Amino acid sequence: MNQEKSKIIKEYFPQARFSEPLSKHCTFRIGGPAEAFIEIDDLSEQNQENLVNLTKYLQKSKIPYIIIGGGSNVLFHDKGFKGTVIKITAKTLKFTKTNLEADAGAILQNILKEASKRGFYNLQPFIGIPGTLGGAIYGNAGANGLEIKDILKEAIIFNPRLSLIYKATPETLKFKYRHSNLKETKEIVLKATLNLSKAAKHKALAKKLSAKRTQTQPYGLSAGSFFKNPDPDPTKPKLKAGYLIDQCGLKGRQIGQAKISEKHANFIQNAGTLKNPATQKDVIRLADLAKKEVRRKFKIDLKEEVQIIPHKPKKSM
Ligand SMILES: Cc1cc2nc3c(=O)[nH]c(=O)nc-3n(C[C@H](O)[C@H](O)[C@H](O)COP(=O)(O)OP(=O)(O)OC[C@H]3O[C@@H](n4cnc5c(N)ncnc54)[C@H](O)[C@@H]3O)c2cc1C
């Protein structure tokens, strides 16, 4: 990125950094540098206006950009990102009697902690899901029978194409299993309001669910489940992606430093070291192998849950 462009980006967000290693900003610990990297830790009206103007500038200058939160569902490219990465870390929480208004950068597990301190336990099924509220809304994150869509009251969304900030309801976000229409519209979650309740039954559940996670999921560097579970065929038993990969005998299979977990076959791990990590290429080759074997054995096409970020996107993601 030339000096003039860097200078303009800094005019909107003086905290912008350049050549920032993306491996530091994702749970996979994979990825080269972002040309420009902006952390937004405050969603004041002024900063929202700066974000509107920054994205206008980036679009006009054809500089690709992406938004990230906790980086727990992304796989960056080994050469990094040729463009601007905007990381939303603003995390203000405001509790009312029955709701929580939170910034998109609020860490989901911190929300659970703060809500339960106040006696609200209905979010406890999410125990152990890393990342931010914004990322969870984008992918309709869920666990143990609860999805974000079930507790979302409304969200403040920024549409960069129209330079428009508006209030969206769960209906307008068109949630499905691990999907919202933000994946198509490329809009940005700024804030959200969640419905809270004092569902005490979940209080006792939390410990059990947390233990279940520790038992079934591996430690180490990953982005959680790599593939979505296939759409259930009503005429057949429900088959999970991990089961299908396991049945293909792929647990423990390694390409480069990328490895299919021995504990949970839907987890691809970066089994390397800081100096010699897995590469995006290793992970994709291993994922392609899993897809090929599952297709051959079960005639099922697995689809990635993890967002694979290219080095040079064709358009802003
Ligand atoms: C060990 C482990 C366990 C996991 N378990 C679960 C689980 O049980 N259930 C589950 O659903 N997921 C799980 N995940 C996946 C991941 O934690 C979730 O998808 C999470 O919601 C991602 O949030 P994030 O902030 O890290 O998003 P990121 O990884 O930063 O981003 C993911 C996607 O969301 C978009 N995005 C992020 N913030 C915003 C925003 N403010 N506005 C618009 N788009 C945005 C990004 O552009 C990107 O495409 C797990 C991951 C790990 C590592």
Named once each, the bound ligands are: flavin-adenine dinucleotide
Supply Rg.
20 Å
Beta-strand percentage? 15-25%
* Cα distance spanning the termini: 18 Å
Q: From the 3D structure, determine the CATH topology of the largest domain.
A: Uridine Diphospho-n-acetylenolpyruvylglucosamine Reductase, domain 3
Query: What letter string, H or E per element, gives the SSE order?
Result: HEEHEEEEEHHEEHEEHEHHEEEHE
Q: Treating each run of at least 4 consecutive H or I residues as one helix, how many helices?
A: 9
Question: Can you give a write-up of this model?
Answer:
This protein has 317 residues and is of the alpha+beta class. It has 3 domains: 86 residues, Uridine Diphospho-n-acetylenolpyruvylglucosamine Reductase, domain 2 (2-Layer Sandwich); 111 residues, Uridine Diphospho-n-acetylenolpyruvylglucosamine Reductase, domain 3; 73 residues, UDP-N-acetylenolpyruvoylglucosamine reductase, C-terminal domain (Uridine Diphospho-n-acetylenolpyruvylglucosamine Reductase, domain 1), CATH 3.90.78.10. Helix content is 29%, strand content 22%. The strands form 5 sheets. It has a 5-stranded antiparallel sheet. Strands 1-2-5-3 form a 4-stranded mixed sheet, covered by helices on one side. A hairpin with a 3-residue loop joins strand 6 and strand 7. The longest helix has 19 residues. The protein starts with a helix and ends in a 9-residue tail after the last strand. The mean pLDDT is 94. The structure holds flavin-adenine dinucleotide. Flavin-adenine dinucleotide binds next to strand 3, helix 4, strand 8 and strand 12.
